[in-house]
Amino acid sequence: MNENILEMRNISKVFPGVKALDNVDFTVKKGEVHCLIGANGAGKSTLMKILSGAYTEDSGEIFFNEKVLKPHGTQERKNVGISIIYQELSLFNELTVAENVYINNYPKTAAAAVDWKRMYENTQKLADSLNIKINARAKISSLNIGQRQLTEIMKALACEAKLIVMDEPSSTLSQSEFEILVKVIKDLKEKGITIIYISHHLEELFIVGDRITILKDGKFVVCKGTKELDENSLVENMTGIKISQIETEEKEIHKVSDEVVLELKDMSNYKVSNINLALHKGEVIGLYGLVGAGRTEILQSIFGLAAITSGEMQIKGKKVRIKNTQEAIQHGIGLAPENRKTQGLVLMLPVWENMSMVAISKFKERGGIKYKSINKECQKYKEKLDVKTPSIQTVTRNLSGGNQQKVILAKWLMKDCDILLLDEPTQGIDVIAKEEIYKLVREMTTMGKSVIVVSSELQELLRICDNIHVIYDGKQIMCSNKAYFNSDQILHASVVGRIG
Amino acid sequence: MELKLNVREILKKYNLIIMLVIFIIISAALSPNFLTFNNFFNLLQQASIPGIVAIGMTLVIILGGIDLSVGSVLAFSGMITSMVVYRFTGNMLGLIAGCLLGIVVSALMGMFTGVLISRFRLPDFIASLAMMEIARGAALLTTSGNPIFGLDETFHIPGGGFIFDKVAISGVIWIILTAIAALLLKFTVFGRSLFAIGGNSEAAMLSGIKTKRNYAITYVACAILAGLAGILTASWMSTGQPTAGTGYELDAIAASVIGGASLSGGAGSVVGTFGGVFLLQIITNIFNLVGLPSYYQRIAKGLIIIFALLLNKYVSKERK
Hints:
By secondary structure, chain A is α/β, with parallel strands linked by helices. Chain A has 18 helices and 22 strands. The model of chain A is unreliable at 241-251 (pLDDT under 50).
């Protein structure tokens, strides 16, 4: 008998402009806890989405219990016993634990009505068998995050899952909640259930995992038993040496002025604490860290979206308190938010309207808004930024991601702001458009503008930034100047939360 | 292919006008009295008051909201004005003061609804539903539910007067207000901001638009227009009627949507709404001319709304 419950062979998946997965092999033994790790963008999520049936692989084969899985929908995969618990849980807050557990197959009475009694009993039995202390009749909204996670696990078991994928289960758990999770995972193992465990927290892998598979840039790197690896070798495998080779090619030091335009002094907010940062005129600062480390939250405070709880912020040497976005804009700050479609643009409006949204008062004359000048200005920026759109009248929804991002940049350039905050500016954008955006950022700095970039792609930051700050779990743990950029060190710091 | 595309383009741009023309032709065929100047001016007079209400509703819908309280605000404003006008019969100043008071009270009610929605984040549907009840109750309370008859004759002029004995003054007011609202939407920063907020309020906020303030202002504008319509109603009937304006909110919503507004916000036009109000009024008018009972009217109205929306959907199918 084959001891492998899951074999994914030669899986490839291409997205426009990116090869997300390149001939990846991934094999999981029956009854083990198999950890899957890799830096942001290494392809973990894509691989798991292919496993769940949410994506279809371009090539490759999947064997589950020695049977080939044809590409189909998520429901079929659930039926064969593959369950995925996503980072953002998918529970119904206003329903009880039992209802959530049995949401896909409510137990029925003979009269085809919902058998509430049996549902509560079964749920309670399930909880007891895993030594989970939870009330089957409690509403999800009354539970803490750890209990919700456990509810998700019970839900997977109620569907008779044989393989459970846990995507970053610990990221929002407290230490004690994590310990409960570890215990539950052990119980699940004893029941013969296989688990794929994805986490950014490397130290956890040695606690829960039997084997570890590492992906990097969409490629399989290594699969070894936990005992054969240590933290350093993990980081080495996750980062590789390729990145450091590239960076040496363009290590010219960019002259930055001495003039400080924005300074954070021991700034803390609801997520981050004691951030220190000085942004000079013409400088590009990068904020690197894992997703959820608190990078976006730093930008939020600068842009007046999150109150500064302690410390202070200075603009051009003057202490400021920015309470809302209008004040931030008055101080010459602009933000290209993380999510272009839901935060950056009004998709149903034409390109010109989005481009002129911030600067519109500029076009106001005695007779009202002057459309001629708006037209001229938008046309100018369309050419300058090479926005590929049939016309500025085109509805913004119809533009590609890269061109939408350019529209957002045009919006802030038109307002002539001095400080630009770019949150994941190239996420989901193809390679060519990425290059164009890097070029634009460089041009902006020569115009005397200063930029803070948040990105999950280290290569990107290494290329465009003068300084990179590494954020880990709300804390600033490292700052590196372009002259001394060392990608291994930065990656290591972002993953383990300390230098060296 | 080319031709087909063009047909769709034309339909898209002028679908409301085309529908109006179709209905006018049908109506003209059904009744010889329909296509006369007199009847046209009649239509203008009848459509003016719901039309003024619909202007405000369109602004709110563009913003992504909805205001169910307009009919009740109309009634309350009408009652307040009527009470003052009645008390000071024959006094011009009293008349003006009455009208102003009606407007101010409406504005306050709009402000209340707007702040509930923008500041306290109540759903717009519920907040305006609550105001609908409050304002209706207040209107009935003013006179314990009785109408106020016999208002000043001068007061009858704005709602019931005619220029050259033909053109209703209220109709002219409606046209002027539509023009003002259209210019406001097109040529002011505030007007453009409504489209941005309705299209994506988070993106609008991140672009520095004062979303909360503009929300409140728009609800105030909508309530003021409803209040003005209330004064015109009282003036037209020379009566303060606490049950006036019942169901106007739904007519106003229907007219806005027929005119191209999207209930999810970000799209709409007051000129389109003007056409929408006219269209609905034509249906009422032709049924009256032909002499069919009003039950049929309501069924027809419902069908027209469905037809108009399906047509809008068909012509705006842009997505690939």
